[in-house]
Amino acid sequence: MELLALAIAPGLAICLFIFHRDAYNREPKRNLLFSFFLGACSIITAILIEGIFKEIPPKTISGTAVTAFLVVALTEELGKFLVLRYYAYTRKSFDEPLDGIVYGVMISMGFATLENVLYVAKYAGSGQGYQIAFLRMFTAVPAHAAFGVLMGYYVGKAKFDAVNRRGLLLAGLFWAVLFHGAYDYCLFLQGLPAIKNIISDGLLFAGAIASFIIGIRLSLKHIRMHRRLSQQTFKPTETMAIRKAYPHDIPLIRDLAFKIWPVTYSSIVGMDQVNYMLGLLYSESRLAEDMQKGIEFVILYDGVQPIGFASIGLMEPRAYKLHKIYVLPSYQGKGAGKFIINEMITAIKQKGATSLLLNVNRNNPAKGFYEKLGFTVIKEEDIDIGNGYFMNDYVMEKVV
Fold it and tell me: Which pLDDT score, from 0 to 100, does residue 206 have?
């Protein structure tokens, strides 16, 4: 039983690891378990094909390459790929690129776990079961996981890129076979007497480990990339934070404003008015004057990247006004604005406020966004800002 547990444990541990990496939009457990089962079943074809060629041992370097890359790596990875492509890929729950990695690893761990059990059982009779179990725990099983990540990364991208879908699917299979074949090739060369006169077994094993390490590093990088995309899609505010801005932050506020305003307002009021208002409202002297009057500015960050800003000030007892709230276009619609407003509301409630006011241009679709957050229109304003321009706004209020 101990040997069986040792054979099964690494695959299950890696499954749990990848399951917890998929923290933002997890797959149904039933789908994952079935993927694991189908991955284990895919070993049958590999055993049959490899069994045929087992009777024809390679005697040359090129023959060993054929065995490693085409007989073993291609056969095993193709079996996993077919499960990934024709089972997991078709699930409705496969709704983000990270899912390719999740299912790819589950399928690979099903394959690797059954393969591990068979290897350990094979060597248990000769007393080498524990050595094989521990060796494969740190080499073959995580290597299969790495191959699954490499394949799943591209399959996940293919799901959401109809133009390049076929190429991405083939790329997933190619990279899995390449790293799998390279790993096995170095190990298989140890069986050639001719090669031992040139390269030692230790050096060949080091080559296998090198390909293994590179595969692991690439896999972790791919997991981080797709996990970051998952976080941005399903919980975009998780890494967001705001801090109070100070006079030395004025250049940063100006930089953000000059990136945001043309995209946000050019279609509403035209670029001439946009340029005029940027000069009027976002000069260094005007921003410094606002801060001196007691208007508080905050800067919104996603991790360490500044992505927006806002300003707020007391209008009358127990009522504050949100003077400015802007986020970069690439973050609009991802919860950033709601995050700032909620933070502002929390802060002013602690100061005894009962309402929050803001102005929004009457042609700005952002009015619908504010209404969803509980703001209501209380009046209209037409503010003369000079040079023949007006701010034609709704005044909106939210009771807090």
Answer: 79
User: Residue 266 is encoded by which pair of tokens?
Assistant: 């050019």
The pLDDT of residue 199: 66
Residues 297/253, Cβ–Cβ less than 8 Å: yes
Smallest Cα–Cα separation from 148: which of 189, 90, 88, 93? 88
- Give me the percent of the chain exceeding a pLDDT of 70: 97
Cα distance between residue 356 and residue 296, in whole Å: 14
Partner residues linked to 146 by β-bridges:
none
- Residue 310 sits in a domain whose CATH number is 3.40.630.30
Question: Which residue, 206, 234, 262, sits at the end of a domain?
Answer: 234
Same domain? 256 vs 383 = yes
Domain co-membership, 222 together with 303: no
Per DSSP, what are the bridge partners of residue 244? 298
Q: How far apart (Å, rounded) are the C-alpha atoms in residues 66 and 63? A: 5
**Average pLDDT of span 135-164:** 94
Distance, first Cα to last Cα, the chain: 62
Give the least confident one: 41-55, 161-175, 236-250, 320-334. Answer: 41-55
pLDDT of residue 158: 97
Residue for token pair 């191959």: 147
Q: Is the pLDDT of residue 357 over 70?
A: yes
Same domain, 222 and 318: no
| C-alpha dist (Å) from residue 78 to 4, 98, 176 | 27, 20, 9
User: What is the domain range of residue 99?
Assistant: 2-234
C-alpha span between 89 and 32 (Å, rounded): 12
Grouping H, G, I as helix, E, B as strand and the rest as coil, residue 361 is: strand
Domain match, 61 and 176 both: yes
The angle subtended at Cα 246 by Cα 242 and Cα 251, nearest 5°, is 95
174/264 Cα distance (integer angstroms): 44
**Do strands 305-316 and 296-302 pair parallel, antiparallel, or not at all (unpaired)?**
antiparallel
Total domain count, the chain = 2
108 vs 148: CA distance, rounded Å = 6
Single-letter amino acid code for the residue at 266:
S
Question: Which pLDDT band holds residue 231 (cuts at 50, 70, 90)?
Answer: confident
CA 273 to chain centre: 39
